[in-house]
Amino acid sequence: MRAYVVSRLAQTALVVFLSLTAVFAMVRLSGDPVLLFMPMDIQAKDVNEFRQRLGFNDPMLVQYARFVAGAVRGDFGDSLRYRQDAMGLVLERLPATLLLAGTSLLLTFAVAVPLGVLSAVRRDGLLDHVATISTVLGQATPGFWLGLMLIYLFSVQLRWLPTGGMGGIAHLVMPTIVLAAFYAARVARLTRSAVLEVLGEDYILTARAKGLGEGRVIGKHTLRNSAIPIVTLAGLEAGQMLGGAVITETIFAWPGLGRLTVQALLNRDFPVVLAAVFFISLMYTLINLVVDLVYGWLDPRVHLR
Amino acid sequence: MKKWLGIGLTLTALLAAFAASWLSPHDPLRTDFPQSLKPPGAAGHLLGTDQLGRDLFARVLHGARLALFIGGCTVVLTAVVGGSLGLVAGFVERWPSAVLMRIADVQLSFPFILLAMTINTIVGLGLRNIILSLSAAGWVVYARVVRGEVLSVKQRDYVQAAAALGMSRTRLLVRHVLPNVAPSIIVVASLQFSSFIVAEAAISFLGFGIQPPTPAWGSMLSESRDFVYVAWWLAAFPGAALALTALGVNLLGDWLRDTMDPKLRV
User: Can you tell me the distance from the alpha carbon of B173 to that of A159, in angstroms, rounded to the nearest whole number?
Assistant: First the structure.
C-alpha cells in the first residue's frame, strides 16, 4: 500500500512537471510578452533593457533551467501586471475557489445521489420521469447560459440576489447552482444506472428472500455496492469542477483561481498562467490519487499495485 | 422518444445551418441603429434586434452554421488523429503505447476548457485556431477508448486465427481490428460533438474564440451581458439554440450508444 502511494506520488510529480514543461514551451513559442507591456512610444533601447532585466535575452535552455529551479520551490516569478509574486496571487485566490467548489460538491451530492437512488428504486414512476428529463436538460444546458438566465431572473427581475462578486451567503447561491448543475445531472444519471445494475444482482434477491426489510436492502446491500462507479465519477468531476469554475467565476465576477487564470491569459501575464496551471494540474492529479485510494477502501477486492 | 427527439433537434439545427440565408431575409452583419434593441416580434424581426440593430433571428441561424461547422471539423479531426493513434498504440503496445498514455496523462491533468483556452492564447484567435485548439485538447478521449478496445479485440479468437494463418499486421489491423472498434469511434464522436459545440461557445464567451461581429453563439452571449437589464432576448435565444442543439446531439449520441455499444462508458 505504501509502495503504491509512493509510486503514484512520483508519477504525479512527473505528470505535473511534464505539463509545466509543455506550457513553458508553448508560452515561449507564442512570442514576446514584453512588448505587450510597453507604451506605444517606447525606445528600442528601453525595451531591450527591460528584456535584459527580466531575463528574456538569455538562451532558451538557461531560461528553462531557471524556470524549473524556481518551479520546484513554488517560485514562478512576479506577475507582469500586478508586480507581485505569481504564486502568492494564486494562493490568495485559492480559498474563494475552494469555497465555491465545496458548496457545489455538497449541493451535487445532497441532491443528485438521493435523486438517482429514488428514481432507480421507483423505476418508471413519476419521480423517475421528472428526474430523467431534468438530468438530460441539465447536461445539455451550458453553464454560462444558465448563469445569465439566473442573473436575469433573480437579480434583474426579482432583485433577490446580487449579480456577482463575493460577500455573504446570497453571493454564493447562483454560482453554486451553476457550477453544480452539470455535475449533479451526471451524478444523478450515473447513480441511477449503478443502483439499477446492483438491484438486478442475485444477492439482492437473496436479501429480499430471507425477509430483509426494503430499507436495509437498499441502504446496506445496494448502496454500498453501487458506490464505486459513483465515487470514481465524483473524483473525475471534482477535477473538472476546476474547469467549470473558470466559466462560473467569470460570469459572477467571483474572485477565485478560475477568473484569475482567464484574466492572466487575456493579459498574457505568463508567470501567473504558469503558477495557476501548476496548481490546477497538481490538485487535479492529487484528486485522482485520492479517488484510487478510496476505491480500495470501498471494495476490498481491488488490489492497489 | 429519445431517438426521435434527438433526430428532430439535430435535423432542425442542420436545417438552420444550411438554410440560414433562405430562412431569414436579413443579413446577420448589417447594422441598423434606429432599429436597435427592438424586442422579439417588432417590425419584421422575429427574435428582435441587438444593440446595433442587427436581426437576432438571422444571427442565431448563422450561429448554428458556425457551431456545427466547428463541431463537425473538430470531431472528424480528433476521430482521425486520436483514433489512429489509439489503434496503433493498442496494436503495437510496448513503447508507442507507453508514450501515448503518458501524453494522455499530461493532457488529462488540465481541465479540457483551460487547455483549449491556453492553446488559443498562444496560437491566436479565429475560426481555424479554435478548431485546432479544440482538437488538440480533445483527441485524447478517442486515443484512450480506441486503445482499450483494440487491446481486447486483438485477444479474440478470430484475430488470433487470422494472425496464425499468416495475415500481415497491417492487413490484420485494417480488416479485422478496425471494423470492430469502429462502433466505439462513432459513439465517442457523437457524444463528443455536443461537448465540442458547448466548449467552443464557452471559449468564445470568455473572449478566446470567435470574435465579434461574427455571429457565434458564445460571443453573442458574451455581448448580451452588457444589456441584461434592457434586452433579455439577446441572452435567451442564442443560449436556447445552443442548449437545444447540444440536447439533440446528446440524445442522438445516447441512442447510438444504446444500439451500437451499450457497454461503452464515456
Answer: 62
pLDDT in tens, B104-149: 878 877 788 888 888 888 787 888 889 999 998 889 888 888 888 8
- Which chain B residues touch A16 with a CB distance below 8 Å? 109
CB B219 within 8 A of CB B62: no
Does B242 lie at the interface with A, CB-CB under 8 angstroms?
yes
Element (H, E) at B254: helix B233-260
> Is residue B114 within 8 angstroms of chain A, CB to CB?
yes
The highest-confidence range among A112-121, B67-76, B176-185, by mean pLDDT, is: B67-76
Q: Which three cell numbers stand for residue A110?
A: 445532497
First to last CA, chain B: 22
Contact yes or no for B154/B178 (Cβ under 8 A): no
Q: Cell for B7?
A: 433526430
Say if CB A116 and CB A195 are below 8 A apart. yes
CA–CA gap between residue B114 and residue B121 (Å, rounded): 10
Tell me the residue ranges of DSSP E strands in chain A.
none
Residue of chain B minimizing CA distance to A29 = B122
- SS3 for B49? strand
Q: Residue B48: what pLDDT?
A: 80
How many other β-carbons are positioned within 10 Å of the β-carbon of residue B22? 9
Whether B23 shows a pLDDT value over 60: the answer reads yes
What percentage of residues in chain B have a pLDDT greater than 70? 97
Looking at this protein, which amino acid is placed at residue B71?
G
pLDDT above 70: residue A33: no
pLDDT band at residue A303 under the 50/70/90 scheme: low
Q: A273, B208: Cβ pair inside 8 Å?
A: no
SS3 of residue A136 by DSSP? helix
Verify whether the Cβ–Cβ distance A284 to B242 is below 8 Å: no
Percent of chain B predicted with pLDDT > 90: 26
Q: Say yes or no to pLDDT of A30 above 70.
A: no
